[in-house]
Amino acid sequence: MIWAAVIGTSVGCYLLKLAGLSVPSRWLSSPRVRAVTLLLPVALLAALTVVQVFAAGQKLVLDARAAGFAFAIVALLLRAPFVVVVVGAAATAALLRALT
Amino acid sequence: MTTDAEPFDADDADDADDAADAGDAVEAGWPAKRREVVQDALAVGLAVGTYGISYGALGTTSGLSVVQTCALSVLAFTGGSQFALIGVLGSGGAAASGMATALMLGFRNLLYGLRLEPMLDVRGARRFSAAQLVIDETTAMSISQPETRAARLAFWTTGLTIYTLWNLATLVGALGASALGDPKRFGLDAAVGAAFLGLLWPRLKHVTTWSVAIGAAVVALVLTPFLSPGVPVLVAGLVAVAVGIARPQAAEEVS
Predict the structure, then answer these.
(1) In the predicted model, is pLDDT for residue B14 greater than 50?
(2) Which DSSP letter does residue B227 get?
(3) What is the pTM of this model?
(4) Phi and psi torsions of A60, nearest 5°
(5) Is A74 among the domain residues?
(6) Domain range spanning residue A81?
């Protein structure tokens, strides 16, 4: 099943890129289509963020991941590079688990 | 992959000024320009490489094998979608939900391609290799170049640098994390949320994008107890559809 998802995602992502270089540009000239396309990553990334932090299966939980999330927000506000945000969030959660 | 260099930003205003006086001056400055473009490409490639290590590490801790994690970097080569697929699979979502989320995220590359095509003017076999390199960073780096020659050079050098380093970094991260053992002990489950937030952050520039982000987050959390894992994220995507249709001028605000 994982292989199917890997291959399906790969083929789909490549075809989307190729389509951009191949179709006439008027296909996506509608402002509505453009707006939706540009806002989609924002909505999906925001949803993915909170689900990764607060969901465990179908339950909503508050655990060490929330502390990692708080660290990530502070680090981003301080303009820390991506790797600091990610590693710091992991370290924060790991530390909290080791202490409790 | 998403860096702070947003594709629709033109924050390289200095470069634009420099090249504004076209003709001999630009021609004489070409070796310097070429060096600058190549240096920028390497810098972006190195920054993206660190994302690649995170992605590789989180890929194997989300239940993918090292080969599957690397295959996605070689074949899909678009960080946001790759993170989305491993995130949904890792949190127990169905393969179909993961794929749908990844493809919806990859849709923006189509817009980038439309924007790059007149400048790249690639035909035949070259179009197939150029297509794989159409991502956030190559778009950002090439559309900020006012001159076609520099824009093409920026596209290819940035693209090939990132492609090489992203794949190397994925392999290092995947091998490293699979040697670590229990991912929870190292807080790697918390790193996934931080990675998504890091990808989202540079896009939160306007009240419209903030509203869409908060609306989508609320929708996803409210639906989590009622739908199978992965599906709430897809439904949250409808927030973008609703706002985009209601406020088409949002395209200008976010771009």
Answers:
(1) no
(2) S
(3) 0.82
(4) -95, 125
(5) yes
(6) 28-99
User: What are φ and ψ of residue A59, in 5° steps?
Assistant: -100, 150
Q: Distance (Å) from the C-alpha of residue A63 to the closest C-alpha of chain B?
A: 10
Asked if the ipTM is above 0.85, the reply is: yes
Candidates A10, A39, A69, partner chain B, best to mutate (most B CBs within 10 A): A39
**pLDDT, tens digit, for every residue of A1-33?**
899 999 999 999 999 999 999 988 777 778 888
Backbone angles phi, psi at A55, to 5 degrees: -105, 140
Residues 141-160, chain B, touching A (beta carbon < 8 A): none
Q: Which residue has the tokens 């001999």?
A: B24
CB < 8 Å from A in window 221-250 of B: 221, 224-229, 232-233, 236-241, 243-245, 247-250
Contacts of A21 in chain B (CB under 8 A): 113, 116-117, 120, 122, 127, 130-131, 134
* Residues contacting residue B210 through CB under 8 Å, at least 6 positions apart: B204
Q: Does residue B165 contact residue B45 with C-beta atoms inside 8 Å?
A: yes
Q: Where are the domains of chain B?
A: 13-203, 204-255
Helix (H) or strand (E) holding A59: strand A59-60
Q: How many domains does chain A have?
A: 1
